[in-house]
Structure formats: structure tokens, C-alpha cells
Amino acid sequence: MKCYYQGCQNKGITKEHIPPKSFFPKGEKEQLLTVKSCEIHNNKKSTDDQYILAQICMNASPSNRAREVFLKKIEHQLDHNNGAFKRMLSQGSVALNDGAVKYPVDAKRFDEFFTALSCGVIFKTCDCQVPENYLIHHQYLNFVDEKNRPSSERAMLREFEQLISGEPLKALDFGKPNTENERIYTVKVFGMPGFKSSITVVHIFYGKFKVISLLTNVCRERS
Known about the structure:
alpha+beta; 4-stranded antiparallel β-sheet; 19% strand
């Protein structure tokens, strides 16, 4: 069987967790979905996983389980290696007038993480890769830059969110990867089965942190 990652021709000889195990509290293993992965695309970069997890928890806390996961999975790592991880998270941070702190986000890391996660979700749903004619990009609804969009774009985004807030219509029910631990991670996939349309993947972590992954069928869009 091929690796789960879009366009990869290597065999899937290892297992990749989607999302990573570190996102779940100890003892909650019912959510540990896996897909076949080659060694290259097996997510062995724990620093990236922890970076993404820390940012998600900081943006979702105290909602649902985010604060708990941060305290158990992230806090004890902040002072490792003379505080290297803490410095990485806080580099470029800005103190706001209301006492809050605005932290910068490494967009490239987030895009790479959610592209891999979306590829895994699709592979788990239909047992095949995202076709190479699909372009993947992401909207991060919890980040400040997303909220600073022009009013016309915000209105369009709100309308789009309403369309995908419920369960997919039958014609756009691409399938379900069978996520079970909704307090940690839920995902919905909108699109015509068999890759007959573009696909929208809605990820929600800890009931609050939402990412919309847009998988655009370039050939169909141009036809």
C-alpha cells in the first residue's frame, strides 16, 4: 500500500497518527487513528508537533480540554534545554494594553502540519491519496490576522462557515474517518465522493480552535 501523503509513491511501511498522539491526554487512546506512511512522511519531527500543539492550546484555552493538555503536555517542556522551547514560542511576542500577549505564528509550520493532517484524513476516509491535481491551503479562524480581514471577506467567510456548520448534505458527504473523541478533535469532510469536486475539511480542536482546509480540484475549476 502506498504512503498516505499526496503524490508520494513510496510504500507505507510505518504508521502515522492523525492527529499526533501528543494531542490527546494520557489514557484516551480511542482517538488514535492511523494511516500507512513512508519513513519520509511519518511525522517524526516532535518539535513541530509540540509547537503546533502549544499554539493551538494557547488559542483555544480555557475552552474544553485545551488548558489541561497544555499543562500536561507543554508546560514541563518550556524550560528544557535552558528554555529553548519557551524562547521559540515567545520570540517576537507583543504585550497588549489589556495585559494579554500576542504571539507570532510560524505559518509555514502550520501549513505543513495541516496539509499532512488533511492528507491523512482523506486517506483514512476513502483509502486513497489526495490526487495530485488538488491544491491545498488553509484558513485559521482563531488567529488575529484572519479576524483583520476586510469586512467583505469576513462576511463571505461567515456565510461559508454557516454552510459547513452542520452535517454534509448527502450529495456532498465525502465520508467519515470515524473520529470518536470529540472533546479533543473532530473533523468533517465536504465534497462529492470519488473526488468529483473540490473538498473542504473542517478541523476543530478542543471544541474551539477551527481550521478550514480547502482542497481545490484545479482541473475542474479551470474547466
